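I'd like us to work through together how a protein chain folds, taking it slowly. We need material for that, and I hope you will provide a protein of your own picking. Go ahead whenever you are ready, and we will take it from there:
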Amino acid sequence: MLTDILLTAESFVSDLIALDKQWLLVVNGSDSLYLDRVARVLTTALTWLPLYLSLFYIVLHNNENFRKVLCVLAGAGLCVLLAGSVDDMIVKPTVARWRPTHDPEIGLLVDIVDGYRGGSYGFFSAHASNTFSIAVFFCWLIRSRLLSTALIIWSLTNCWTRMYLGVHFPGDILVGLTWGFIVGTFVYYLYYRVTRRMNSSRRFISTKYTSTGYERSDCDIPVTVLVFTLLYALIRATL
């Protein structure tokens, strides 16, 4: 009985892995050199520096004391530490699942852009977990529907580039997003527990503010920055 269950489970996992590889080949690459360049621009961390700075501005402008600002920055740093560093230092070398570009079964079928192959192992995606943990943390922190939507789009854009470039399977991305959500939510809970005594007794019921006291007009800034960053990538790819 136990043997049958193990065999069934093994067959199920094998089918999932095979499906994962099939979907990767569907999403990976294209015949468009322009789209190749767009993906390369968008997957670069430096491209998103203006977005990070805009989030920092919101935090700085909407918190009444420097301790809370430091707590937010510490929370964002903890998101990256738990989401990305745990992945790179523990999970990837332990699981040791090949990236698509290094996979002995489909590696030759993967469309490689500008010789970019990434490291040997890819489970799970640090890009997915890092960006989604930050997105979720700020979604809970600011509670702006528009900003939350923009941050989720930002994270999913990064996820798309990783599959397009052939350095992550869809399964790597899904697990990374799941871990990022867990980390972002957990870190916000810690942040709330630490800072709840620092919060003022004011209740923000004006349409000018979100429920956590952030000015809605400030929330438009990262959204605008995201739009211009995407436009920059589209223009930069033509040069």
